């Protein structure tokens, strides 16, 4: 590891130790400051290979990913609670979430990618690890897949309760969005019903768990259906787990996107084999490359919530309770 990479790892470890000493990861000035520092440190393009780091740093990386996941969940819960008690249809107020525009961009991109791989628009969509603020599902259902049914899976009952409250007042989405409180590893035959399955970045916090979940999806998803995953590359792998395309057994990897701007997550798109063989399709690979040149944060890249490059201070947004009171 070169001198520059050693300096980078040292700085990340220092920030980790500060984060680990926080009494709470709920939205606050200290949380905002430290995660902003972390994101800005990890964003620059880096050739670092996290698999080659020493055992101690590997341990810190694993713990840091979990801390990022906890902070992300608390941020989502905070805003979902505010929206859920807004007094009327919460869907009308989604723009108070400071990163709502990211979801608008992401949904457009993913819709373009999906239509490039499908002969017809998906009508059955699953999102695994949808969380308390399932904006990817909501935006896709509202703006792009307006007749599709969305099944959102989360193991946390409180997350699903908050998410369900968001759509329950909307006459359209309440009839097309469903929430299942269950471990996806216990779901089998239902997975064959979906044209597309989204797997959140923080579902499967380490390589072994992620691979186990992917293998389960490969066993039960319908042949020809699509799997969309979130991964990370370079120093960004200190924020999210890495999905190795070689671990996608039972799937044909169609493309892997590694953004080089302030967007955190890489995006992996794969198709379930038919009889263990790739499906022949007429995808224009050049067109795919063009489509993949712009990547925006996904439901699973909420850690960008602490990134000040595109948004205002998170703490300023906490005053939205007063706006909706």
Summarize the structure.
The protein is of the alpha/beta class and 325 residues long. It has 10 helices and 7 strands. The longest helix has 30 residues, at 55-84.
Helical coverage, percent range: 40-55%
Q: How would you state the average pLDDT, rounded?
A: 83
Distance between the amino and carboxyl termini: 53 Å
Strand order of the largest sheet: 3-2-1-4-5-7-6
The value of Rg in angstroms is 19 Å
Taken as a percent bin, the fraction of beta residues is 5-15%
Fold-level CATH name: Rossmann fold
Q: What is the 3D form?
A: globular
Largest sheet: number of strands, sense, barrel closure? 7 strands, mixed
Number of domain units: 1
Low-confidence stretches: 280-325
DSSP strand count: 7
Query: CATH superfamily membership, which one?
Result: Vaccinia Virus protein VP39
Enzyme class: transferase
InterPro entries: Nicotian_synth, SAM-dependent_MTases_sf
Organism: Nelumbo nucifera (Sacred lotus)
Family: Belongs to the nicotianamine synthase (NAS)-like family.
């Amino acid at each position: 590891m070169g001198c520059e990479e050693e300096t980078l790892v040292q700085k990340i470890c220092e920030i980790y130790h500060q984060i680990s000493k926080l009494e709470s990861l709920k939205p606050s000035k200290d949380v905002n400051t430290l995660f902003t520092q972390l994101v800005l440190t990890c964003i620059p393009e880096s050739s670092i290979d996290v698999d080659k780091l020493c055992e101690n740093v590997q341990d810190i990386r694993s713990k840091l990913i979990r801390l990022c996941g906890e902070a992300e969940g608390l941020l989502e819960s905070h805003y979902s609670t505010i929206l859920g008690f807004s007094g009327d249809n919460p869907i009308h107020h989604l723009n108070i979430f400071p990163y709502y525009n990211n979801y608008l961009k992401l949904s457009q991109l993913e819709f373009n990618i999906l239509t490039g791989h499908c002969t017809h628009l998906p009508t059955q969509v699953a999102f695994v690890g949808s969380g308390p603020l399932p904006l990817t599902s909501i935006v896709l259902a509202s703006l792009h897949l307006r007749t599709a049914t969305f099944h959102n899976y989360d193991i946390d009952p409180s997350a699903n309760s908050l998410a369900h409250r968001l759509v329950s007042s909307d006459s359209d989405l309440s009839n097309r969005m469903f929430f299942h409180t269950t471990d996806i590893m216990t779901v089998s035959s239902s997975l064959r019903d979906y044209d597309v399955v989204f797997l959140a970045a923080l579902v499967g916090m380490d390589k072994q768990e992620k691979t186990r979940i992917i293998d389960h999806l490969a066993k039960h998803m319908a042949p020809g259906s699509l799997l969309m995953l979130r991964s990370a590359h370079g120093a960004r792998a200190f924020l999210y787990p890495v999905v190795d395309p070689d671990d996608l057994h039972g799937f044909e990897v169609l493309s892997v996107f590694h953004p080089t701007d302030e967007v955190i997550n890489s995006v992996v798109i794969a198709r379930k084999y038919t009889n263990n063989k790739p499906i022949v399709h007429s995808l224009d690979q050049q067109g795919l490359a063009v489509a993949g040149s712009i990547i925006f944060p996904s439901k699973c890249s909420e850690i960008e919530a602490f990134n000040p490059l595109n948004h205002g201070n998170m703490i300023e947004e906490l005053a939205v309770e007063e706006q909706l009171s």
